[in-house]
């Protein structure tokens, strides 16, 4: 279902326990771990989720249907989510709610400057915060009837999704080592590491970002990250 499916929407009215019932949320996110978190949040809230892992896929989705809510990760393998936010907020008809998300401390300013209605800082694990970010920006006719008691619940994605993210990074590092791809790896790993509380991996990602920004040789930092990724792949779920 999408926002153009008014008949279906009329039969899926939000409730106080499932306040996002009737909404379709398109999540553009390349991290399997972060996407699994979004899936659980949508499931608990009553929303239907559609997913895209890059700008190209997201644009293809948006040519076919209009979701109720768009949640865009800013760091994607084929470009910046900021560009997609700018396109979404200028489109007609406009998606009702457009939110940016990132593990980068500067992500909120970039998303809001692009026209996003709000921002979700990673890790996104609080059900109440997730629901409030959407409900507070929905039109009045899409709000649930009656007071909503936002649940104080934290979701915990399956760590198998974290393993998928590590395998993805290993594949990227095996294929390319140019600065553009290393910038992507640093951004991607930083967000995933913060989401799972992996401080060593987060520090390594920050070190790579700093070296790239300063124009220093990055072989040492890239090798450190490759080693840490392989360690986590070999550990399976023992993180």
From TrEMBL:
The modification 4-aspartylphosphate is found at residue 73. Keywords: Phosphoprotein. Residues 24-137 form the Response regulatory domain. Pfam families: Response_reg. It comes from the Bacteria. GO terms for biological process: phosphorelay signal transduction system. The keyword Phosphoprotein applies. This is Response regulator.
């Amino acid at each position: 279902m999408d926002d153009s499916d008014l008949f279906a929407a009329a039969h899926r009215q939000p409730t106080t326990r499932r306040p996002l019932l009737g909404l379709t949320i398109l999540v553009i996110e390349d991290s399997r771990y972060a996407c699994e978190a979004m899936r659980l949040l949508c499931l608990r809230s009553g929303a239907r989720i559609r997913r895209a892992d890059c700008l190209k896929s997201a644009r293809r989705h948006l040519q076919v249907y209009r979701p109720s809510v768009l949640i865009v990760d800013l760091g994607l393998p084929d470009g910046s989510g900021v560009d997609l936010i700018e396109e979404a907020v200028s489109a007609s008809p406009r998606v009702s709610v457009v939110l940016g998300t990132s593990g980068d401390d500067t992500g909120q300013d970039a998303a809001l400057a692009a026209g996003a209605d709000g921002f979700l800082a990673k890790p996104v694990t609080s059900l109440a915060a997730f629901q409030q970010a959407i409900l507070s920006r929905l039109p009045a006719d899409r709000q649930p009837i009656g007071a909503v008691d936002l649940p104080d619940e934290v979701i915990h994605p399956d760590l198998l999704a974290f393993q998928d993210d590590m395998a993805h990074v290993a594949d990227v590092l095996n294929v390319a080592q140019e600065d553009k791809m290393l910038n992507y790896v640093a951004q991607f790993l930083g967000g995933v590491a913060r989401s799972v509380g992996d401080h060593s991996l987060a520090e390594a990602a920050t070190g790579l970002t700093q070296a790239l920004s300063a124009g220093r040789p990055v072989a040492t930092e890239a090798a450190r990250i490759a080693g840490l990724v392989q360690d986590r792949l070999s550990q399976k779920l023992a993180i």
